[in-house]
Amino acid sequence: EPERFDHEGRFFQVKAAFSQPKPVDCGLPMVVSAGSSPTGREFALTKADALFMVVPELDSIAENLAGVRLAMGPRPINVYCSGHIFCRATKQETEDYYHYLIHETGDWAAGRFLLKSYEEIHSMPREILHSDPFIERLMSGSGTLPVVGDPDHVVDTFKKLNAAGISGMAFALPNYLEDFKIIREEVLPRMEAAGLREPWV
Fold this sequence. Notes:
The chain is an alpha/beta fold. The protein has helices spanning 38-47, 61-72, 91-104, 108-121, 126-129, 132-141, 151-164, 176-193, and strands at residues 5-8, 13-17, 32-34, 50-53, 78-86, 145-148, 168-172. Helix content is 48%, strand content 17%. α4 (108-121) packs across α6 and α7 crosses α8. The two termini are 24 Å apart.
């Protein structure tokens, strides 16, 4: 409704409520299933409108998604992933920023502790899980796909994900208030120029 409304239901009772923003369309809400295990993917492919998955390695994502797409059959759905971005104006600035946060001030004991809970929900080989690069990945972004580089590198990574069949990525930033500025001013325009994003109107 465009105006405020009252609702008396079994679980919710509200007076003069309003909804903003409005739904995108008049259809049902999109159902997204998050899962990277075979069981989780099968559930998403049969019951959901989209699959949200972990990308273990950028180099193997195309091969990984080929199997997912094959399993979809006549019911194609969008596939999304999650990542974390370290981005500064230059490659060197970005590497220095990453090194400061992870190697100079990072809590490696906490990273190894986090690994224990990660082992329980993921089936990656133990030699990968217990490697320093994977612990870095946990420390820098809770195990999501790391994207570390200048704006051109970030957009090149998005191009590879898109070419492999990823429809979009939810991403985290080390310091959202400070780090989003370069995303807004440098990364988003490059994405629009590359045809990866519609301009915001």
